[in-house]
Amino acid sequence: MRPRKPAAEPKAHIQGVLAASGSREEIVDVIMQMAVYAGFPVALNCLVAAKEAFAERSQRGKASCQLKGVMLASGAASRS
Hints:
The chain is mainly α. It contains three helices and no strands. Helix 1 (8-19) crosses helix 3. The chain is globular. The N and C termini lie far apart (58 Å).
């Protein structure tokens, strides 16, 4: 049985934690702890939301690095 697509709310909260310098390990630990209280189906949905948020953040990081590389290669960073 596959977990269903998670609601947008957990993903938004996870993105907020990442933006506030929270680590992936901390997020997964919290989700595993809440599984006992909220139930395993909810925890699985949150893990899927976390996976999506982690993927989006790493894609944004790669795009940001590529953009900086283009700026540096064009000499835009060295201009005053």
